[in-house]
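User: Hey, quick favor. My workstation is busy. Could you predict this chain's structure for me?
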Amino acid sequence: MRVLARLVCTLLPLVVFLPSCSPPASSPVADVPQTSTNSDTAISIHLELGYPHDADTTDDFLVVRPQYVASFSYKRNTPNWVSWNLNSDWFGDVPRYEGNFIVDPMLPESFYHPDHNDYTNSGYDRGHMVRSEERTKTPEDNRSTFYMTNIIPQRPDLNRGVWLDFERYCESLCKDSLKQLFIVAGPVFSTPQPTIIGQHIAVPDSCFKIVVVLDRGQKRSSVTATTPVIAVMMPNRDGVRKDDWTLYRSTIDDIEARTGYDFLNDIAPSIQALIEAK
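Assistant: No problem, here it is.
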């Protein structure tokens, strides 16, 4: 995966369209471009521990921003995953963006473009993967978290309850313990025909988050078999608002089995095997 990252970096900051295998005949997309970017630094920052991938690369459109990297699924119209770096430098005092959630202009014209109204009166929140509060250094940082490629449908009890509690715990690690986090989060779909809201938005039955905890200034080379790793898998349903987030601790191995994605693949395999089983 380091080879892929270096290859992408050499092409930045151009918008890169890398054709892949054709999607199934039933797909509305004839030829799927693979990458769109407006940053020449995001790959090294937000994919420091690896580029998550699965067996079907045709459904991974990479959106690269200075604030995070997202893999978007044109089949489900949600991110497959979002990956980002988090430390106290990302927090500031910029107020929360107040407009509607934003159609992402980086998506190809041939894709369906999720918008704010797809979620209206659906019973689901517009659930951030990169939390708005985690990007409050500048107005543009905060606004970037409202692009629909950073959003999945979450039940209010999840989004405003136990998921938020875990987000606040991550914030405390950065601010109070001066840690640097490398995070990947996304939806989990257990059935091939999930519930649909709006025009074409698939609803996940669970949501995952993987957090690798390092000291400030540390990166991939500092990861060892004893590096703290927190993995959670939370059900996307009512009744979980007041649950303790630790009830939903999982392992990266389990999340990989449920999603089909390989995470942290730029870490030495011997170390990766140990921390993913924690």
